[in-house]
Design brief:
Length: 237
């Protein structure tokens, strides 16, 4: 048995929600955080979702990280083509985080600073790595993780879908266990909630919409950006 919770909120500042999310049968989940002016960010994230839907529709195949990577690369081409047709869309792009359960494996592909987490055996682990300027500074020891939370350039991406013709896509897989909980989310959530707070919500035994709870907590914590979360709970039996 699988329980899926989805929630998104425009936040108190922005005029539109540039985040997009979807669950696609069987067991595929995507979040995307668009960027670009004149509603172009919303268009970019929607194009990524549409590309995934079109690509997967009617396919009876074994999913792999390479398949998910192909979706992102096709979306990259689609967004670049849309930018060429409409000058007002130039510079638009989106993050992309895709997860699929294939048997006992969790497979994923990723670009940007949206995130994929797994809560396994009571431990929350971030599977994806942010493609951002601040994350690079943390990795090379220039700043600490605590300094990164308030860094003025924390939203500057080093990689996004639809910006360059050549795109490097991170991908991988991990062994899944009974009772795993999966979280896909945009940076509107992780910019204001610490991993410990996220883990506390995911570990709640009460039958509540954990995605809605996470988004509400992010808003209460002062979140100003669009906020999106998908939580997938796999049966422990």
């Amino acid at each position: 048995m699988v329980k899926v919770y989805k929630a998104t909120d425009v936040g108190p500042v922005r005029k539109m929600n540039e985040d997009s999310l979807i669950s696609i049968i069987p067991d595929t989940y995507i979040v995307a955080d668009g960027m670009g002016g004149h509603a172009a960010g919303e268009i970019a994230s929607h194009l990524l979702i549409k590309t995934a839907q079109d690509f997967l529709r009617g396919r009876d195949i074994v999913y792999s990280e390479l398949l998910l990577k192909e979706i992102i690369l096709k979306a990259n081409d689609a967004i670049l083509a849309a930018s060429e047709r409409h000058s007002e869309y130039m510079g638009m792009g989106t993050t992309a985080t895709i997860f699929h359960r294939e048997g006992t494996l969790g497979v994923w592909a990723h670009v940007g600073d949206s995130r994929l987490y797994v809560l396994q055996n009571g431990v929350l682990k971030q599977i994806t790595q942010d493609h951002s300027l601040v994350e690079d500074l943390v990795r090379n020891g220039t700043i600490t993780e605590e300094q990164a939370r308030t860094h003025p350039h924390k939203n500057v991406l080093t990689r996004a879908v639809g910006v360059d013709e050549e795109l490097l896509v991170d991908m991988g897989n991990f062994a899944m266990q009974k009772g795993d909980k999966i979280l896909l989310c945009t940076d509107g959530l992780t910019n204001v909630l610490r991993d410990e707070e996220i883990q506390d919500v995911l570990q709640e035994q009460a039958s509540v919409d954990k995605a809605e709870v996470l988004v509400a907590k992010a808003l209460a914590a002062g979140g100003l950006d669009n906020i999106t979360a998908i939580v997938v709970e796999y049966d422990e039996k």
